[in-house]
Amino acid sequence: MRIGFPRALYYFDYYPFWAGFFHCLDIEVVTSPPTHRQIMDQGLKKASDETCLPLKLLAGHIQAFKDVDWIFLPRIVSVEADTYTCPKFLGIPESMLPAIPPGMSVLTVNLNWRKGKRQVLKDLEVLGEQLGKSKADIRKAFSQGLEWQQNYQDSMGAEWNFEESIREINRARKNSTESVQVPTLVRLKDRVLAKLPARTSKYTPESRIVDQKTTERLRIGLVGHSYLTHESYANLNLLKRLREKATVELVQNVNQEEVKRHLSGLRKKLFWSHSKQIYGAGKKFVADQKVDGIIYLTCFGCGTDSMVQELVSHKAREQHKPYMVVTLDEHSGEAGLVTRLEAFLDMVERRRAHEGYVSTYGECLDRNSNTV
Ligand code: SF4
């Protein structure tokens, strides 16, 4: 049995779970290819005009499947207590039905972690019945999915490369034997980190100016949904371009304790899981003296970002942190993005180099003083 898993939206957060889950059930998971022009065009034809770019891309990826038994479109209602996913997530799979190629079937399941792990397991058992799997099989697959997801999350760090971690999961899936059940992501992370050039000195407030002027790269916080920051076609290779010039901190790599700590000042709780992560991590970047500037990556039609972006920008203004918003849509042009990016990085770099500089040139303003 082959299940089509679109390389869009929840792929960027939860693919490890589903890869582990279906692998344990002996079901092959086929992902659509990385986004290209045709996928984007197909998505634009089938998705509603008012929806956001990631949903349009999802519609395009769905149409890229040729030879699968089912297209998997889970309805992810919530992933933790007290929050929901964005309303557009909740509308899947129905909102995607016009994009389903003729003759193909949709496989779906409701996932609502607000109702607890037991309920999630029950819902997965219903899915299992459809696939001809027993409850025991589903329980085992569920544990494996959680384990893979946990390993994936543990392996995330500031320098972590999403594509490498997914490659490693797929390698583990293909080469899996009885003794190799879990992707060796943590070991892979060590390998990736070992390849990175060592920093010349440890950060201390005193060493900061000398350090930065001579050796340290710029450090930029990239704030936005995982399916925008890692979607290199839609974001015109923004992450790669940034990494060529600066060390990039991603909101997905900020741990939950830090996020919670920075959410504490809000008068009202945020409803949406992604927005919580984005706001909490964004606020942490604002407060972090090691982060030189922040880029907020958003897209037209994103309801949650219309509020959260304002909140983060307000915090950045308060702290005089350099801040830029990049809004993507299907018409975004590469030249415009490159120009804005270079201008922003130049500005951050100049600011860092000259921030503490006070010119001694010129007349003394206080003429009555006997100091020079
Ligand atoms: S959070 Fe924004 S970008 Fe993501 S699915 Fe919802 S509206 Fe679209």
Notes on the structure:
This protein is of the alpha/beta class and 372 residues long. The chain has two domains: 2-155 and 160-188, no CATH class; 201-354, 3-Layer(aba) Sandwich (Rossmann fold). The protein contains 15 helices and ten strands. It has helices spanning 11-24, 37-46, 53-63, 87-90, 117-131, 135-154, 162-174, 185-195, 208-214, 226-229, 238-245, 256-263, 273-287, 303-318, 334-354, and strands spanning 2-5, 28-31, 70-72, 75-78, 105-107, 110-112, 218-223, 246-250, 293-299, 323-328. The strands form three sheets. A four-stranded parallel beta sheet has the order 2-1-3-5, with helices on one face. The chain has a four-stranded parallel beta sheet with strand order 8-7-9-10, with helices on both faces. β9 (293-299), α14 (303-318) and β10 form a beta-alpha-beta unit. α2 crosses α3, α5 (117-131) crosses α6 and α11 (238-245) packs parallel to α15 (334-354). It starts with a strand and ends in an 18-residue tail after the last helix. The site of iron/sulfur cluster (SF4) has 13 residues, from α3, α4 and α14.
